[in-house]
Amino acid sequence: VFGLSSVAQVVLGKGNFGQQLSINLGFGIGVTLGIHAAGGISGAHLNAAITITHCIIGNLPWRKLPAYLIGQFLGSFVASATVFAMYYDALYDYTKGNFTVTGPTATASIFSTYPAPYMSLLGGFFSEFVATAMLLLGILVIHDEKNNEALKGTQALLTGLLVLGIGLGMGLNTGYAINPSRDLPPRVFTAISGWGMEVFTAGHHWWWVPLTAPLMGSLAGVFIHKIFIDFHNQPVLESGNEKGQQVMESS
């Protein structure tokens, strides 16, 4: 709701009620609050790519995957419907009742991501891949208790800032979906709410890229963290003992 409504305000306000930074902040704030809301209950799995990655590496039982995905997709779909209802009058005024995916009054991008006109499918895939790898790498180092983890209670804020940083630097090419459950449900919603099936054919059938590239990027982020950081970490107990020994020697 925070993310999509910020896009709606920028687009429908014709740049007079926010800019790209507004959108980045909206998604960052939404992620922060989502983690606070669900962190203690489910681990705050807000991203299907991350959930599937946790299943692949053995951190989450596969039997739990359907419930997580249903929750993510339902939440994203309801968020789209909420923003659509909130801004329906503005949408109608902006488009004169003609909801389009492309063109001067295109509004489908309020809800889902679409590649910039100059982007190829391969280039767009790579952008989403890299952005999601950075997302996973950032999340892992924020929560890495064997290295230099964030202070307890700050993880949600730092993850929101991480998403903000991705938007600030990696949002130009594709709108940084970095999350299948953020992109597909709103696309389905727009398909049945007036924009039609063009939401699946636009951008050289772009719709499948935000589903697959984030998963590949997520796995790459885990691999990078394992190779360059986690394998070099000391066990928590050993690390703690070594710090204690250093203190004793200093004394």
TrEMBL record:
Subcellular location field: Membrane
InterPro entries assigned: Aquaporin-like (IPR023271), MIP (IPR000425), MIP/Aquaporin (IPR050363)
One GO location term (cellular component): basolateral plasma membrane
Annotated family: Belongs to the MIP/aquaporin (TC 1.A.8) family.
SUPFAM superfamilies: Aquaporin-like
Gene3D superfamilies: Glycerol uptake facilitator protein
Keywords: Membrane, Transmembrane, Transmembrane helix, Transport
Protein name from the UniProt record: AQP7 protein
TM annotation in the entry: 67-88, 121-142, 154-178, 205-224
One GO molecular-function entry: water channel activity
NCBIfam families: MIP (TIGR00861)
Record membrane topology: Multi-pass membrane protein
Protein species of origin: Columbina picui
Reaction(s) catalysed by this chain's protein: glycerol(in) = glycerol(out); H2O(in) = H2O(out)
Gene: Aqp7
UniProt keyword Flavoprotein present: no
Domain of life of the native organism: Eukaryota
